[in-house]
Amino acid sequence: MNSSVFSDLLPEEYTELTDEQAMARCHEAVDRHGTDLLLLAHHYQRREIVELSHRKGDSFELARFAQRETGSRWVIFCGVRFMAESAAILAAPGQTVLHPDARAGCPLADMAEPEDVREAWKELAGVLGEMAGQVTPVTYINSNAELKAFCGRNRGTICTSSNAGKAFDWAMAQAQRVFFFPDQHLGRNTAVAHGIPEEQILLWKKGVPLGGNSAEAVQQARVILWDGHCHVHTWFTRKQIEDVRRENPGIRVVVHPECPLEIVEAADASGSTSFIIDYVNRADPGSTIAVGTEVNLVERLADNYDGVKKVIPLTRSLCPNMYRINPQNLCWSLERPEELPPVTVPEEVSRDALTALDRMLSLA
Q1: In a domain, 359, yes or no
Q2: What is the DSSP letter of 294?
Q3: Paired residues of 96 in beta bridges
Q4: Over the stretch 200-221, which tens digit does the pLDDT of each residue have?
Q5: Which residues have CB under 8 Å from 111's CB, separation 6+?
Q6: Residues 121 and 170 in one domain
Q7: Considering the entire predicted model, what is its pTM?
Q8: H or E element: which one contains 51?
Q9: Is residue 363 part of a domain?
Q10: Domain check: are 127 and 156 in the same one?
C-alpha cells in the first residue's frame, strides 16, 4: 500500500491523543490481547515503546524472535519496513505481521535497488564468467525482500552487524569473492577485520560501467562493496572523537560498524547494537562512555545508568524513520489490528528470501 495513503488512514480519534493517553491505551490493549499478540521493538525505538514490547533487540535478535515465537495471532513490528518484511517471511502460518507506519522505511536499504544489483551481477559475470565459485552475494539485513531473495537464488546469504564476520567466513568459503550490499562501511570494516588489503576491496557505484572500475580491478578484488551508507552512522567524525576525549579524560568510545573505517579505527571498540549495549553493561562503575549510534538507544542507556556510569552520545544522531512509530499509530495497531494492511511479501520472493534468512540464522 502507498505509504502516504497508509498514513492518512490513522483515524482522527488517535491523532488527537496525547502521548500519555495513547500509551495508557496501548498498555490496556496489550493486556487484553494476551498471548494473541507479540509486540517486537528495535532498540532505536522510543523508550516507552521499547518498555512496552514483549521482545526488544537488534535486527538479528528480532529476526530470531520472529522465527521462534509462533504462538501469537498478531505480530506488531516496531521498527523500519525491511525488518517487518523479514518478520513476515519468518512468521508461522496463521500469523499476521503489522507495521504501525509504512512510511518508516530505510534510506540505506533504498540505496540498492534490485534492478541495479541484478545489472551489476550481469556485468560481473561478463568479466568473471560463470559466477558459481567466483562471487558470493551477501546482503546486509538492511535491504528489501527482493534483494534477500536475490541472495537466496544465487548461493548467497544475509547478515546483520552481529554476524557479519561469520557471514564473510561462510561466503569466502563458497567463492573467491564477496559482493556485499548495500552498506559499504559495514562491508569494508568487516573485510579489514578479516585482513583483506585495501587494494583487494573494490567500491561499486551504480549507473557506471563496471561500477567505475576496470576489468583488471574486478578480477583482483576479493570484496566488492556497494556504494551505500547509513546517514545515522556517517554523521560521526574523527573530530567528535578527538573533542570528546579532550573534554572527558579516560573516556571510552564505542561505535557501530556502519560508521566509516576511520571512525571505527579511532574508537576503542565497535560492534552491533547488542554489542554496544553489552559494552556499556560491562563497563566499570564510574566509567564514562561515548556511544556512536542512534540517539534513542544512547539516551536510554544514559538513563539506565544515571549515577552509576556516564553514558553520552558521541553526537546526537537520530533515525527519523524509526521515530515514525509513535504512541498514536501504535495504539491504533494494538486496538484495531484488523484495520491495518498486513505486511506481505510475494510468495516467490518470500521463498528465496527465506532460504537466505535461514542461512543467516544458522550462522548465529
Answers
A1: no
A2: -
A3: 74
A4: 999 999 999 999 999 999 999 9
A5: 182, 226, 227, 228, 229
A6: yes
A7: 0.93
A8: helix 47-52
A9: no
A10: yes
